[in-house]
User: Fold these one by one.
Assistant:
Number 1:
Amino acid sequence: MATYEYRCPRDGIFPARFPIGRAPAGIRCVTCAAEAVRVFSAPSLRAMPRPLVAALDRAGRSAEAPEVVTRVPGRRGVARPVHPGHARLPRP
Ligand SMILES: [Zn+2]
C-alpha cells in the first residue's frame, strides 16, 4: 500500500491509500463526495532522519559508481564500537 494525494476543488488535498500502481486518476472526496483528481507530489522525505537520507543517497551513488578504497576501512585511527559478546565468539 502507498499513500497518494487527491485534490478536491472545495476541500483541498487529502491522502488516500491504494496498492502501489493501482491508484485511480480520480476518487470521491472523503468530505463532500465531489470528484477529486490525483495530484503528483514529492515523496515524504522530510519525515526521514537526516542520517538515513544521507545513507540512502550514498547507497544509490555507490550502486552506480562504487567508491574506491585503498585500505580496509576502520583498521587505523578509527575506533570501532565493540560488542562485549564478540569476545566470546570462537576464534579461527
Ligand atoms: Zn471535498
Number 2:
Amino acid sequence: MMEVFKAVTCPVCACLCDDLEVTVDKGKIVDVKNGCAFSKSKLLNYNGKQRVLKPLIRKGNDFAEVSYDEAVKQAAKLLTEANYPLFYGWSMTSCEAIRVGIELAEEIGGVIDTTSTICHGPSTLGIQDVGLVSSTLGQVRHRADLIIYWGSNPLIAHPRHMERYTVFSKGRFQEKRKLVVVDVRETETAKKADLFIRIEPNKDFEVLQALRVLIRDDELDVEKVAGIPVATLEKLAEMMVECKFGALFFGSGLTMTEGKNRNVDAAISLIRDLNRITKFIIMPMRGHFNVTGADMVFTWQTGFPYAVDFSMGYPRYNPGETSAIDILLRQESDAALVVASDPVATLPRKAAEHLVKNPLIVVDPHMSATAKLADIVLPSTFVGIEAKGTAYRMDNVPLPLKKIVEPPTGILSDEDILSKILFEVRRLKENAS
Ligand code: SF4
C-alpha cells in the first residue's frame, strides 16, 4: 500500500530540511518531494549493493558472517583488552546513539572524538575563546537583509540553505537581501553574489581585522589587504554597517586555512563589533546532518564538545593532544570503534594507516572504505530512514528524525548495537573483578 510521509527530516546535511514528502510503496521509497539532489540520491538509493546485511568478522583476507551476539562479544573483548582505544565518528547518527557511545568510551577509559576534528573543531575553539552572537535560521529567514558566505559554497555543499533561509527565501519581514561571498575562487555561490571578494589563500585573518578597523571609520595605511583593494573592503564595511540585520555564514574555507581558530576569533570579534552599530549574527555551516548534535551530547555528558579523553578516569579535553588525528599520528591508540563515519576515506593517510593497523570495529549500514579494512563489521540501520532519533540543525535546533521504512530483517540500530556492546563490556569487567 502506498503511504506518503510528510514533514520528513532529511538525514544528509546540517540544514536538516524538515519539509520532505516521502512516498513509500510496499516498504520501498519510490518518490521524494522537496529534497535536493543529495537528499533524493540518499533516500532513493540507500539500500544499494554496498549494504551489509550480516555481522562480519575478519578471517584472513576475507570476512565470515556471524551472529550479532558473536560480533558484539568479540568487539567488547577487543575494546576491554585495549589500553587506549579510540571511539570515532558520530556525526551521521542520532543523539540517542551518541549518548550510549560516550557511556561506552567512559566505561572503557578510551578517547572519543567526532568528525568536528577535521572540519569545524576550530569554530568550537574560537567560540570558546570569544563567545558567539547567533540566532536561529528562522530569524535569518524572516529578518536578514545582508547575507555573507565566507569560505563556504552552499549552492554545492548545502543546496537548500539559500532557498530555505537566505537569499532565495521570502521572510515575513524581509524578502530582498544582498548577497556577499568571500572566497579564494569564484564558486557557484559567488556567481550569484551582489559583491564577490576574491581573497588570497590563507589571508582571512588579515581581511577580518582590516574590516574591524574599517567599520569603526578608521583608515588603513595600505592600498591592498590580501590582494583586495581597500576601496572594495570599504564597500563591504559600508554594507555591513548600513544593513538592518546581517548574517555571516562561514565554512571550512575559514576554519581550515592558516590561522584556523584565530580566523574564527577574528570573525566573531568583527560581528561583536558590528553589534554596537546594528544587528548581526554569525553561524558555522556545519556539514554532516548531526555533527551539531554530537557537540551537544558530548557537552551535556562530559562538559566538552569533542576530543574527550577518559583514560585518567575523568573527562579531559585538549584538542591537539586528545583529538583523533593527533592520537593516530602519534600512534598511541591500540584499538578503535568507528561509528557512522569513514575515516579511511577522510583522515590523513598516516592517521588512517595507524587506525587500520590495530583492532578495528566498524558500525555502519554499508561497506565503507573503513569497513573493508575492519576486523569486525556490525551492520546498522540508516537513522532518519529505518530508525527514528534526534538530530540538531546547524543553528542548534533539535529536530526529530523519522522512521519511514522497515530495516532489512534482523538489522539493529546504532543505539541498540552500542547498548549491546556496553552491556557485554560491563559483564566482562564484572567477571574480571
Ligand atoms: S540541503 Fe541538506 S538537509 Fe536539505 S534536502 Fe539537501 S541535503 Fe537534505
